């Protein structure tokens, strides 16, 4: 299922072509395939994770799980590209759009909190268990959301996908050097090389017959 979910990289590219009229060359399509393969290898589960995943699959329907993952790939690609279309084709600023989306998230979050944890919130408050680290993580998440919106407005979802893939590698390296809770495997190094190669390939240039360099 983890391999299948990486199809969201290609669905994002397909929606970008169909909804935004973006043109991708051969090198860029190849780079997206390399990126998908690289992210899959980097996130490939260990033996214990594979055993737990097989146990989950054996207790449920593999067909239903596959359909759910494919639906998630399509919905993720469509949502990202539609958000990009709204940001680039309307006059409202990034800040206004983020406030609008944040209001929807706030409403749904309040409803979910009330339904599932309403009693605990009334007893101990909404911010029970919060400390400095928790507040720092929340702040970074909020800042990351704003940065993503800026990237989508002034670049595109495909470049965001490359940045996200590189961030996965950086996160795992930080886990290895600082937290010491990750042991890189040969698949991780192969995946990292594919992601880096895909990044360079996507931005590569070729020269046509007249000698002028154009993007592909």
From TrEMBL:
Family from the record: Belongs to the nucleotide-sugar transporter family. SLC35A subfamily.
Pfam name, any one: Nuc_sug_transp
The protein's name: UDP-N-acetylglucosamine transporter-like
Chain ranges passing through the membrane: 24-44, 64-83, 95-116, 128-152, 159-179, 185-202
NCBIfam families: nst (TIGR00803)
Topology class, membrane: Multi-pass membrane protein
InterPro entries: EmrE-like (IPR037185), Nuc_sug_transpt (IPR007271)
Keyword Transport appears in the UniProt entry: yes
Presence of keyword Transport: yes
Keyword entries, A-Z: Membrane, Sugar transport, Transmembrane, Transmembrane helix, Transport
Location of this chain's protein in the cell: Golgi apparatus membrane
Molecular function (Gene Ontology), one example: pyrimidine nucleotide-sugar transmembrane transporter activity
UniProt GO cellular component terms: Golgi membrane
Species in which this protein is naturally found: Notothenia coriiceps
């Amino acid at each position: 299922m983890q391999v299948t979910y990486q199809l969201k990289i290609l669905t994002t590219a397909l929606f970008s072509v169909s909804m935004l009229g973006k043109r991708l060359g051969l090198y860029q399509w190849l780079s997206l395939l390399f990126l998908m393969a690289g992210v899959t290898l980097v996130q490939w589960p260990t033996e214990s994770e594979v055993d737990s995943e097989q146990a989950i699959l054996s207790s449920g329907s593999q067909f239903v799980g596959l359909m759910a993952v494919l639906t998630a790939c399509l919905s993720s690609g469509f949502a990202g590209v539609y958000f990009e279309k709204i940001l680039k084709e309307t006059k409202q600023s990034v800040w206004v759009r983020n406030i609008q989306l944040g209001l929807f998230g706030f409403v749904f979050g309040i409803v979910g909190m009330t339904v599932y944890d309403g009693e605990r919130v009334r007893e101990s408050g909404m911010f029970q268990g919060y400390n400095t680290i928790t507040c720092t993580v929340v702040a970074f998440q909020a800042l990351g959301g704003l940065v993503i919106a800026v990237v989508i407005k002034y670049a595109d979802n495909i470049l965001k996908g490359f940045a996200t893939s590189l961030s996965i590698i950086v996160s795992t390296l930080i886990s290895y050097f600082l937290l010491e809770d990750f042991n890189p495997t040969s698949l991780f190094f192969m995946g990292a090389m594919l992601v880096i190669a895909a990044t360079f390939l996507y931005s590569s240039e070729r020269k046509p017959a007249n000698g002028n360099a154009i993007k592909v």
